[in-house]
Amino acid sequence: MFDIRGGVTGASATYYRLVSNNISVLASVSVARVEGGYLNATGKIVYATDSFIVFYDIPRGNTFLIGQDFTNPAVSAIPVRITYRVSEDDGFRKFFIRIPDGDAGNMLSMARAACNSIKTLEKACYLTGIIDVWYKSNSSVASSLINSLAVKDIQGIFDIETVGNEITLKIRSASLDGVVMFLSDLNKMLAQQGIEVRGIYAVETSEIIIERGVGSNDAISVIRNLGLEVVGVQERC
Amino acid sequence: MILKHILLDILVIALLFSSAYYIFSLRKSYAYEGSMADGLAAAYIANYYRARGSSFLAYVHGVSNEGMPVDIVGRVVDSTRATIVIYSGNRTFSIYSDGQKVKEPFFKDINPFYIQMKSNRELRNVLVKINPINGDLHDLEKICENINSVLDHTGLRVEIITLNFYLFNSDFMNRIKSGEVPIQLILYEINTAGMGRASLVTSVLNPYYLSIQDMPLNRIGDLDGILRPWMGERAFISEIEVRIVLSSVPTQEQISYIIKAVGAIHEVRYVKVVSEFW
């Protein structure tokens, strides 16, 4: 059991060092929530950088973004203490799936199909990529409004840019349900303001499925049967 | 007694030579090692030594956008204030750490945990500057192929060819201005596919033009495929720099031949053999 008090950077580097050496890591975190209050949770690290940890809380089945920069709207929890319980194999696996570029609606339905094809109670699905909403000119959208929508809906790393007639959502390990909800809310908001959308496109999208209970080979074959490419499997995560 | 002195002298001379060799070999090969938090320091060191004629090989251990641990070994083809650009496996990777306030800190190619750089000062890079072209990207590709065939003729193997250029097409730029082109999407398509770094630049003379930096030559078809649906066939391509890394050090005769033969190509403005592009 490791006790990491060096902040997110050390915790992330230690996590990847451990999983690179084929060791399973179960993380226990004590965090201060951005909206107030204190939370202890046990779960898996979905994705980690030198500034962020996307954390899957197994018992509660939800996701939050741990980071020290509480001014970043995507961050939902500030770490107080992170401990790792390491084991040879705790049964959790990560699958990395490539989803073809194109219409965002198609991309989301493919991601949803892949997620639903894994039949187990202990699973979570995440998206990484860029979604570009291109709308007709002579309209303007308040970026603060879109950011508020994203903070409400998306759990994971995200960033929003509004340039010209485009709203670009950059997501990394954001929960699939949250992204679907955000796009639906955004569409409603644009329609309410009378803004006509020309198209919503997805670029360089990939999905992470983290699960326990389905064998690797079974999971890979059901995902491939959907016509999707499994680009990597992490047997220990 | 005399024999003992002679042996002692030989030992001292041998020690002096080996120390000198050790010191010179260290001077020849600067090394940098650091954690991801030192990404800025790594870029600074790369800038400092590249400006003084060292070229770098880099090893990066990190995590990809998808969340998989990755290891990259490649040549440093560019470095800016806080970014190191590495060429490996037919694509370029931009490396910098999250904490740095650079223009595009979010969507990088790889999140580095560990960086190691090794330098040498051997002349093995060819820098070719090309006159502006009124044509398409295939015209540029043809010129680069001509340069490549000259290098082939010398018997030298080319390791990498990358391109820097500006691209202007008035119809395309007017359509961007009026919101008829999803330019952010196009830029992300280019930037996330490892085709180098694309950005839209504004200037007084040309309201908008595309700047492409560190693009591998063999990705020019991919770039054309992305731009073609939105842009007419012809464009004004300017500020063209072709950067060629040779896999071995050329001899003096080979250097003279390269300068003479590449310089004789009609579109070439000048050619230089340099220890590092700067």
How would you explain this protein's 3D organization?
The complex is a heterodimer of chains A (237) and B (278). Chain A has 237 residues and is an alpha+beta fold. Chain A folds into 2 domains: 86 residues, SH3 type barrels (Roll); 143 residues, no CATH class. Chain A is built from 5 helices and 13 strands. Chain A is globular, with a radius of gyration of 18 Å. With 278 residues, chain B is α+β, with helices and mostly antiparallel strands. Chain B has 2 domains: 93 residues, Roll (SH3 type barrels), CATH 2.30.30.690; 150 residues, Alpha-Beta Plaits (2-Layer Sandwich), CATH 3.30.70. Chain B contains 7 helices and 13 strands. In chain B, strands 7, 8, 9, 10, 11, 12 and 13 form a 7-stranded antiparallel beta sheet that branches. In chain B, strands 1-6-2-3-4-5 form a 6-stranded antiparallel beta sheet. In chain B, a hairpin with a 2-residue loop joins strand 4 and strand 5. In chain B, helix 3 runs antiparallel to helix 7. Chain B is globular, with a radius of gyration of 23 Å. The termini of chain B are far apart. About 6% of the residues of chain B have low confidence. At the A-B interface, helix 1, strand 3, strand 9, strand 10 and strand 11 of A face helix 5 of B.
